[in-house]
Structures are given as structure tokens and as C-alpha cells.
TrEMBL record:
Pfam families: MFS_1. This is MFS family major facilitator transporter, multidrug cation symporter. It is a multi-pass membrane protein. It is found in: Cell membrane. The lineage of its organism: Bacteria, Bacillati, Bacillota, Bacilli, Lactobacillales. It comes from Liquorilactobacillus oeni DSM 19972.
């Protein structure tokens, strides 16, 4: 189905508005943990499952995205995901107990997990190669801004209203998006029906086990045999999942595309970029509160300058990538990461809020020049038929590495060891910059569909 320019812009705008609203839910609850603890009379370790469970369900359903894209028309798929998220949010608002609230939260995670790779796939497929940088820059604006502004929005709302108001805001916006989608969202791609492989889906549950183990590491003892057992079983499941995808025709997920030049680097670089972004949005509020003595509200507001710069730069970095190439732009991004983490490491003891904000700006600006350009670099190395698989792989890896980054930062932080966190992520981004030099200016060889 051909879309004229006006319809394409309306389509993409509706997709991004829905995605922005659903993305905020991923990062907005950390500010509200003390409120939930008091409301449900539960410890922080239990309340944290509102985020952990959300991320686990997201990660396990992401590999289903290519099959859903090929077997269902996009319009009903998108409307269904909005409806599921809307229903889950409604359940959360009126939940009489924490377990009921978790049901709603898992429904939200399911919707976001399917939507993240799906909307990126369809935007890439309806956009010409010479415009993908700028369009994906807008996508990066949505994703990065949502992640960075989530804690800010929830902090401001909680200052004046109850926690239900956070979810009520999601509800109102999504209702408007649903109505807009009825008018603006078509099904521009042809269906390509294939058999649903239940065995692959079962084996993919290993992703949940791995993520569960990673999230339990900060408060796990070496003698916790249950968690180590989960790691072993999950690793076996994932081994057979990979083996099955490489030998099944057609597979649920085309893992063989990881052999493609530039796509493999795109996966690694977007993951390393996301690790820094999600870490800075979690570590810096703690730094502002524990080292600089700011209130939760002001620590959240201190993230605003970096979030604003990230939003402003995302589309501009995409336009720049279309003009000068992705390798140069990605190199700028990881150089900014190194400057930001390096300055934080060098001046930790100064405990100056303006210096800390400036360093956060460098790091989030680096993400603007790195994450979506790396994602687009990977997509451009694939044929259109493989883009749904590529988007799913990138989103899954990004989610796993994001969870790993949070746990890594938490373990290293311990009792206010911010310098150790800054050094660790400085080293990671130096390694990433080394990978940038391996990018080929050509698209590389392609695996046939």
C-alpha cells in the first residue's frame, strides 16, 4: 500500500505519540516507589517488581514481533496493543491489591514489548534509505525523551496528586491516540503468513530466566542455589532457542542476520549507547540526592537540561547522518559519552551541581548521536523483508543490556561508590568507540530473505 507524504507523516506521528506515552511507563515509576511502599505496605524489593516484571515480559515477547508483523495487518495489531495497554492501565488504577496491580503492569509490558520493534520496523520499511537517518532521529527523540522525562513527570505529578494520577495521564493520552489511530493508521505492508512455532516460544522463556538472574544479582548470595539453577536452565533453553532458529525454516527469529556486516555492529553499538542512557537517568538522581543533598523533586528537575538537549539533538543527528554518513556521526556520539563519563570521574569530589548537569548533557547528547544512528546503520544493511527481524533483535539485545547496566551500576555503587560507576561506563564507551572504527561505509553483504 502506497502512502502519500501527508498520510505517511500523520501515520508516523500517531505511532510515535502512542509509543512515547507507553515508553514513559517504563521509567516513570522509580520516583513513586516510596509512595507505593506506603500505600501497599510492602518493601522496596517487592515494589521493584513493577519495573522488573514489566521489563521481563517486554523482553520475552519482543522476538514474537516479526511473526506478528508477517501474519497480521498492522492497523488491527496496533489498535489491539493500545487496547491491551489501556486495559492494563485501568486495572492498575483501580487495583485493590499489589498482585492485581502486577497483572495490569504485565499487560502494559506485553504491549510495549510487541510495539517497540514493530513500530520501528514499519517506519523503516515505509521510509526511503536517504531519509532514514532523520526519521529515525525522530524515533530516537521519542524513545530517549520518554526514558529521560519519565522520572521527571512522575515526580512533578506526585508532588500534587496521588500515584493514580500518573496512570490516569497515560489513560487519557492513549484514549486520544486510539481515536487518532482509527483515522490515521493504515496497514501498509502485505501479510506473509507462516506457521507459529510454539517450541521456539517456549525456549525463548530462557530470556526471562536470564533477566531474572541478572536483576537478582545485587542481593543474591553465592549459596542461592535456586537462582543459580534458574541461570543454568535458562542458559540451556536459550542455547536450544538459538540452535532451533538457525536450523528451522522459517524460524521465528532470523538470528542468522547477526552475520551481516554492520548489522552486528549496529546491535552492539545501540546496546552500549542505551546502557549509558539508562544508567545516567538512574544514577544521577541518586548522585544529586546522596552527594549534593537535593530533594527528589529537584533531583528529577536537574535531569531536565540533559533531556532537553537529547530531544533537540536527536533529529539533527539523524539529518547529519544522512549527509555525512553514519560512521562519523556515531563516532561523535561515543566521543561525547567518553567526555561525559570522564569528566564525572575526574571531578566527582567537587560535588558541583552545574558540573554534574553539564556531564549529564554530554552523556545524553552522546546518545542522540549514537543510539538511533547505530540502529539505522544496522537496518540499512538488511533487506526490507528482514527489517522486522532486525528490529526485534536490536530491541531485545538493548533491553537485556539495559537491565544488565542497571544491575552493574547498582552493584558497583554499593555505599555511594559513584566514582566506580563512572569509571566502569567510561571503559565501556571507550571499547564502543573502538568498535565504531570497524564500521564499513558500504552496507555490507546481505542475507537473502
Amino acid at each position: 500500500m502506497e502512502l502519500n507524504e501527508n498520510k505517511r507523516k500523520l501515520f508516523i506521528t500517531t505511532l510515535l505519540l502512542g509509543t512515547f506515552t507507553m515508553s514513559i511507563s517504563q521509567s516513570s515509576l522509580s520516583t513513586a516507589y516510596p509512595t507505593f511502599m506506603n500505600y501497599f505496605n510492602l518493601p522496596a524489593s517487592t515494589i521493584s517488581w513493577l519495573t522488573t516484571g514489566f521489563m521481563l515480559i517486554m523482553s520475552v515477547v519482543m522476538p514474537l514481533s516479526p511473526w506478528l508483523m508477517n501474519n497480521f495487518r498492522f492497523r488491527p495489531l496496533y489498535l489491539s496493543l493500545l487496547a491491551i495497554f489501556f486495559t492494563g492501565t485501568l486495572i492498575i488504577i483501580f487495583a485493590p491489591s499489589f498482585p492485581i496491580m502486577m497483572v495490569g503492569r504485565l499487560m502494559e509490558g506485553f504491549s510495549v514489548g510487541i510495539l517497540f520493534p514493530s513500530y520501528q520496523s514499519i517506519i523503516l520499511e515505509i521510509t526511503s534509505h536517504n531519509q532514514r537517518g532523520s526519521v529515525m532521529g525522530t524515533v530516537g527523540l521519542v524513545m530517549g525523551s520518554a526514558l529521560a522525562t519519565g522520572p521527571i513527570i512522575s515526580g512533578v505529578i506526585l508532588q500534587f496528586f496521588s500515584w493514580q494520577a500518573i496512570f490516569s495521564l497515560f489513560l487519557i493520552i492513549l484514549a486520544l491516540v486510539f481515536l487518532a489511530a482509527l483515522k490515521t493508521v493504515p496497514s501498509p505492508l502485505e501479510k506473509k503468513p507462516s506457521r507459529f512455532d510454539f517450541i521456539s516460544v517456549f525456549l525463548s522463556l530462557g530470556i526471562i530466566g536470564i533477566l531474572y538472574f541478572i536483576n537478582e544479582l545485587p542481593h543474591m548470595f553465592i549459596t542461592n542455589y535456586f537462582n543459580w539453577g534458574i541461570l543454568v536452565v535458562s542458559s540451556i533453553l536459550l542455547y536450544f532457542f538459538v540452535y532451533r532458529q538457525l536450523n528451522l525454516s522459517p524460524p521465528l527469529l532470523r538470528l542468522d542476520i547477526l552475520k551481516i556486516t554492520n548489522f552486528d555492529l549496529g546491535v552492539a553499538l545501540t546496546s552500549l549507547s542505551y546502557m549509558s542512557l539508562i544508567t545516567v537517568t538512574i544514577i544521577m538522581p541518586l548522585y544529586y540526592q546522596q552527594i549534593l543533598g537535593l530533594s527528589p523533586l529537584w533531583s528529577g528537575l536537574s535531569l531536565v537540561p540533559a533531556a532537553a538537549i537529547l530531544s533537540w539533538l536527536n533529529r539533527r543527528s539523524g539529518l547529519l547522518a544522512d549527509k555525512i554518513g553514519f560512521k562519523s556521526v556515531i563516532m561523535i556520539g561515543f566521543s561525547l559519552f567518553i567526555i561525559g563519563w570522564g569528566l564525572l570521574l575526574a571531578f566527582t569530589t567537587l560535588a558541583n551541581i552545574w558540573l554534574a548537569i553539564m556531564c549529564s548533557i554530554f552523556i545524553e547528547a552522546g546518545n542522540a548521536f549514537a543510539m538511533m544512528p547505530a540502529t539505522t546503520l544496522g537496518a540499512n544493511s538488511l533487506t526490507d523483508e528482514l527489517i522486522p527481524h532486525g528490529s526485534s533483535i536490536i530491541a531485545t539485545f538493548r533491553q537485556i543490556m539495559g537491565s544488565t547496566a542497571i544491575v552493574l551500576a547498582t552493584i558497583i555503587l554499593g555505599e555511594h561508590n559513584f566514582k566506580g560507576v563512572f569509571l566502569t561506563f567510561l571503559i565501556l564507551e571507550i571499547v564502543a568507540l573502538g568498535l565504531v572504527f570497524l564500521i564499513r561505509d558500504t552496507k555490507g553483504s546481505k542475507v537473502s530473505s
